[in-house]
TrEMBL record:
GO biological process: aerobic respiration
Positions that bind FMN: 77-79, 128, 130, 156, 255, 277, 310-314, 333-334
Cellular component terms per the entry's GO annotation: plasma membrane
Domain FMN hydroxy acid dehydrogenase stretches: 1-380
A GO term, aspect molecular function: FMN binding
Family indicated by similarity: Belongs to the FMN-dependent alpha-hydroxy acid dehydrogenase family.
Keyword set, alphabetical order: Flavoprotein, FMN, Oxidoreductase
PROSITE patterns: FMN_HYDROXY_ACID_DH_2 (PS51349)
Residues where glyoxylate binds: Y24, H279, R282
Cofactor: FMN
InterPro entries: Aldolase_TIM, Alpha-hydoxy_acid_DH_FMN, FMN-dep_DH, FMN_HAD
CDD domains listed in its UniProt record: alpha_hydroxyacid_oxid_FMN
Protein name: Alpha-hydroxy-acid oxidizing protein
Species: Caenimonas aquaedulcis
Amino acid sequence: MTPLNVEEFRALAKRRLPRGMFEYVDRGTEDEVGMRAVRNGLEDAKLRPQVLVDVSAPDLSTVVLDDTLQMPVIVAPTGGAGMLWHDGEVQLARAARHAGIPFCVATQSITSMEEIADRARGANLWFQLYLFEDREIAWQLLARAKALGIRNLLFTVDTQRHPKKEWINRSGFRVPIRPSLVGAMDLLAHPRWTLDVLARYLLTTGIPCFAHYPPEFHTPITRVTKQVNVRLARKLTWDDFEQVRNRWDGNLVVKGVMKRQDAERAAALGADGIVVSCHGGRNMDASPPALQVLPEIADAVGGKLTVLADSGIRRGSHIAKFLAAGARAVLVGRAPLYGVAAAGEHGARAVLEILRDELDNCMAFTGQSQASAISRDVLV
């Protein structure tokens, strides 16, 4: 049966993936209050219908940082996406290319940005940067991204600690993946994934590594690295932002902004954009939903830089709500991951097409002929 919405793709992904891997994608942190708040906030926000408006030729395109996107969506960076489907990151990049939107390569991708660019030729690639304890590794990554012609850098700044994901201790899955009896039984219960993904890697390239770590730090994802150099930075300040700004001459977008004052400072220090994001409820459980704080931030800095947003998007109407609240476009993470986990590139394409069709419907019912013109008065 062909899935009709993102939730049905989620159900397929849940059946296909080992439990631990599915929960790694699907779940949040601590009591998962933040995830529920994100979902409830999107459901509670209402859009005002408008009638007798010509919506016969809708325009879903928008311009983000001088790029024309065929719809106001960017495929978000997600570490380990290549473990959901063989070459999952390449599949996602190809699906994004087909949809006419960007794909953001994650720092902790298991496929290098160079290989993704080669195998998804023509894809509009962004690069997401985490800073390591050894800053030189990050500077090398910037040089590699520049050499590929990548112009948009997504600097993620909201992960100064590892979130407390208690369910990990039950599922036996974490990144790095640590062998366990529970995990082994999980693999045996999902032979299709074990053969199509894990065994295929073992027979071709070997146990995957984080492709953007320097060669001397390449450690299989089944082994916990003892190298401090490649641990995510615990100390992250505006001085680090200025160092990144000085080394990157393309567009710099700061991801994880949830406070008006931080947005204003980012604008003052030369950011080209921000992503208002609560990390999908995966980091700080007590965080408010991104949609709740977006209007204040957009009103403060929307005229100075590009405002993007993410967290919890599973319907086209969710995209419309973020646009109405002040975002120029949104990043989607879990939704295309469910698609690629269920059916590779074909599944990711289908999810993006579903979101496009639902956004088109929502625009028609609210009397909006241009996605880029959706304004605050659409929100009730």
